Every structure is written in C-alpha cells, then in structure tokens.
Amino acid sequence: MSSHSIEIKPVLSKKDRKIFVTLLWDIFKDDPNWVPPLIMERMDIIDEKKNPYFLHADVRLWIAYKNGMPVGRISAQIDELVEPQHGVKTGHYGFFDCIDDQDVANALFDTACSWLKENGMIEVIGPFSLSINEETGMLVEGFDTPPRLLMGHARPYYEKLVHNYGLSSVKDTWAYTLDISDPILPPTIQKLVDRAVDKGQVKFRPINMDKYEEELKIILDIFNDAWIENWKYIPFTEAELDHAVKELKMIIREDFTYIAEIDGVPQAIMVTLPNINEIIRDLNGKLFPFGIFKLLWRLKIKPSFKTVRVPLMGVRTEYQNSRLSGIMSFGLFEACRQSAIKIGCEQAELSWVLEENTRLSKLLESIGCVKYKTYRLYQKDL
C-alpha cells in the first residue's frame, strides 16, 4: 500500500524483523525515559519459530516507509482462542509505534484493519504486543518515568494519532508504584497475618529452585485460575507455560517468588522480578560482545537494581471472597518486600491492574501504593 510518499511493506524476512525492532531508536531518540529493548529478545518475540503464541494465532507485521525511511510499524493478530473464550470475532493490533504524522498512522491502521476484516473479524482491540499476557495497552499517563520490565512506553502524541483514526478507548489498566523501604502493612493487618501463620491456617514459602519447572507451573496454573474471569483474558496454553518457564529462569529469584499454601495446597502466588530495564539502559539493545557479561554481573553477581516489578499475583477463585484471600495477599506482599530490601531495592511497581478491579486497587492503596501510569486499550468496529 502507498499514499504519496508513504509505503506500507509487510515484514517477510529476518532483515525486515530487524528494521521492525530497531526503528524505535529514531522514534524515541530524544526521549530520556525510553529504554532501548534488547534487540535479540524483541526479534525472538516476533519470530514464529520461537514464540508459541504463533501456534494458535495468525500474525502479520508491517513497516511504514516515508521517502524510503522506516517511520512506523504495526502488527495485526487473529488468535483462534479468542472467539471460543469470549464469543466475538475480535482481531487485535499491537506494536504500534509511529512518527508524529497522521497520514502514516492512518496508513498503518488501514492496512492492519483491512487484513483483519478480510479474514472475518468484526472488531479490533489493542494494542496487545502480541497477547494480553504480554505487553498490554498504550501508555497515556506517566511519560515522566522509564517503563519497568515487560511494560510499554509511548510518545504522548500517539493518543492523538489513535483517536484521529477513529479508535475509541475501551479499557484502562493501571500501574502502581510502592516505596518498599519501610514496612507496608498496618500493625492490625500484620497481626492478622501472623495469627493465621501461627495457627497453621496459612503457610508462606519461597519457591524451590531445585524444582523450578514444577514450581513455575504451579504459579502459572494459579494465575490462569485467578484471572479467568478478567476482561478479555486468555489462559496460557501448555506450550506457552513451558516457554514462560524457560524464559523466566534467568531472571526469577527464589527469594522474590512466594507461594501461599492452605493445608499444604498452593492457593496464592506472587512473583517479583528484578527490573531488567534499569540495568540494560546503557547496553543500547546489544547483548554482544560485552553486554551479556554486564547484564549477568548486575543481575546475579553483584545486584545493582533498586527497582522491581510484580507482574504476577493471584488467589485461586475459590478463596477470592474469603477472609484468607486478604491474609494471603498481604502476607505475600510483606514476604517479597523483605527479600527485596535485603539486597538494596527501594521501589516496586505492581502492574497491571484493570480499572474495574476495585478490590485489588483498594488492597494496593491500603498498603501505600500510588497509581502512576495508565495504559489504555482501544476498540473499533470493522
């Protein structure tokens, strides 16, 4: 597709994928809060041979060129799990990044939406890059701080480009920040947690890295169960579970990942991850030849990160309306906090939280969390 000097080309080769990933360096070149992603990791995500999402989804990627230069990108996805789960022929878009040019943005969205419509979709929702279990939503508030691990960043003008194309906001997700240097639980709550532990009602334990794969599958199984009723949620497939277990092994820490048990059965989880973005900023996206050694040194040998992110937490549905739900959640928060401050961490991000999840929002705010970033999802009928 072309319009004047604008040309939209499909991503077909490894060279194209490299351009798709690295055009961000131009779009964000003057943004002090942008963190260059690891190029190799980003290329793996959009590689159908390496990402199990492609086993149940048809994905197309496009690059916008203006006067021969790459100036924007977008993806369109048709996930075969969506209609059986939610009953609607919904297509997704993602990886939307663009210069401040409405004609370029329109050309990208026209291409993605036309392909989705031609393949039977009746609406488009996004951005999901690539799925709701990966980067979800477009940053619309909180541009003044860098994104945390596995969270997106955007230019403020993106929202204008999206709205002007005719996409309407459909859902907000929030990121909360928390100062973890001091105890976060009110004394009355801490007493309730301590009493439940003393009476043997609840046990909190770190994961056992000697049983890493088994433990991670327990965590992801609880997460699937806890989130099943959430807006547009799609559970991890078995292949995605296996992939996530392998991908997380390098960064997951035994002392940052806790399971709450009732009568010896895992019923709630919290995964806290080092904020890799904090320690890769100066690598400029490159792991080789020396970046990998810097990363391992800063992550494993002499941890130098001060921030962490909680991307996974949940209580099994059978306990979500019980008294023990709050006790397990609060106990997990405090266990992970104590481990993080022992190695010098100061701040945590808890994300993302759906706008209608008032129970979780109130729980987070009760321990001092402050909403500091908003990620928005958009919808358009096709």
Characterize the main sheet: 14 strands, mixed
Instruction: Please give the count of helices.
Output: 13
Strand content: 25-35%
SSE class: alpha+beta
- What name does CATH use for the topology of the largest domain? Aminopeptidase
Q: Please write the CATH class name of the largest domain.
A: Alpha Beta
Counted up, domains total: 2
How would the global form be characterised? globular
Element pattern in H and E: EEHHHEEHEHEEEEHEHEHHEEHHEHEHE
The CATH homologous superfamily of the largest domain is called: Gcn5-related N-acetyltransferase (GNAT)
Would you report the number of β strands?
A: 16
Summed over residues and divided by their number, the pLDDT gives a mean of 94
> pLDDT under 50 segments (min length 5)?
none
Radius of gyration: 21 Å
Distance between the termini: 19 Å
Helical content class:
25-40%
Question: What is the level-2 CATH architecture name of the largest domain?
Answer: 3-Layer(aba) Sandwich
What structural keywords apply?
382 residues; alpha+beta; Aminopeptidase; 2 domains; 14-stranded mixed β-sheet; two-stranded antiparallel sheet; 13 helices; 16 strands; 35% helix
